[in-house]
Design brief:
Largest sheet: 7 strands, parallel
Helix content: 40-55%
CATH class: Alpha Beta
CATH superfamily: NAD(P)-binding Rossmann-like Domain
Order of helices and strands: EHEHEHEHEHEHHHE
Shape: globular
Strand order of the largest sheet: 3-2-1-4-5-6-7
Structural class: alpha/beta
Number of helices: 8
Distance between the termini: 36 Å
Radius of gyration: 17 Å
Number of domains: 1
CATH topology: Rossmann fold
Length: about 240
């Protein structure tokens, strides 16, 4: 019996990186998962790998209609919802002077509006279940930013505020809301940013190595599970002491 036995959990950005690690761990712990992502091929392949415990739905987190469709699929396929991980995110480095309104707006839509919409449309189904747990993936740069990531840092800071407000608004429904703040984690998104950004991340990490998606997934698993029943409205750093 795993710690998530019988639970149903939706994961945005679940097709690769930290989201995929979470999906694999949750299924191993006895959960069923709904994987949402814009990467259809990767998402479908992961759902096939995980078998009957997993489904995939295409999800653009900036589109409210996509969130509605995802939770309709959760209801249809699994009949309940116990957890949501707002994992989807994007990062486009660049100085403020070079940042376009369009670039910033898209980062905001995915990194901040996406989690808000996820919470909005997950909560009614969680109420029917009798409560649940929501984990928002923020970032260590929402505590200790560095130059050249204005849109990413500000949207991830906003996720921390959203987490606290949602925790207070949903406490009466027995829905907990927490934030996870990963530091330098070795993911496909980090790889796509190139070696220079990787070197910056490593230089800011006292432990001298990147974290792994599996390590983040273990923290998220704890916050989704009933083991963390008295924890809500809080930040949980996993960053190799980068914000110490």
């Amino acid at each position: 019996m795993g710690s998530l036995q019988g639970k149903v959990i939706a994961i945005s950005g679940g097709a690769r990186g930290m989201g995929a690690a979470e999906a694999r761990l949750f299924v191993a712990e006895g959960a069923r998962v709904m994987i949402g992502d814009v990467r259809e091929a990767e998402g479908l392949a992961l759902a096939e790998e995980l078998g009957e415990a997993a489904r995939f739905v295409r999800l653009d987190v900036a589109r409210e209609a996509d969130w509605i469709a995802l939770f309709e699929a959760v209801r249809r396929e699994f009949g309940r919802l116990d957890g949501l991980v707002n994992n989807a995110g994007v990062m486009k480095p660049g100085n403020i002077a070079d940042l376009t309104v369009e670039e910033y707006t898209r980062t905001f839509q995915i990194n901040q509006l996406g989690p808000l919409l996820g919470i909005k449309h997950a909560a009614p189904l969680m109420r029917e279940t009798g409560g649940g747990s929501i984990v928002n993936v923020s970032s260590s740069v929402a505590v200790r930013p560095f130059a050249g990531i204005a849109s990413y840092a500000t949207t991830k800071w906003a996720v921390r505020g959203l987490t606290r407000v949602a925790a207070l608004e949903l406490v009466g429904d027995k829905i907990r809301v927490n934030a996870v703040l990963p530091g330098f984690i070795h993911t496909p998104m980090v790889d796509e940013l190139g070696p220079e950004m990787g070197a910056v991340g490593l230089s800011l990490t006292p432990t001298g190595r990147a974290g792994t998606p599996d390590e983040v997934a273990m923290l998220v698993r704890f916050l989704i599970s009933d083991e963390s029943a008295y924890i809500s409205g809080a930040d949980h750093s996993i960053d190799g002491a980068s914000t110490a």
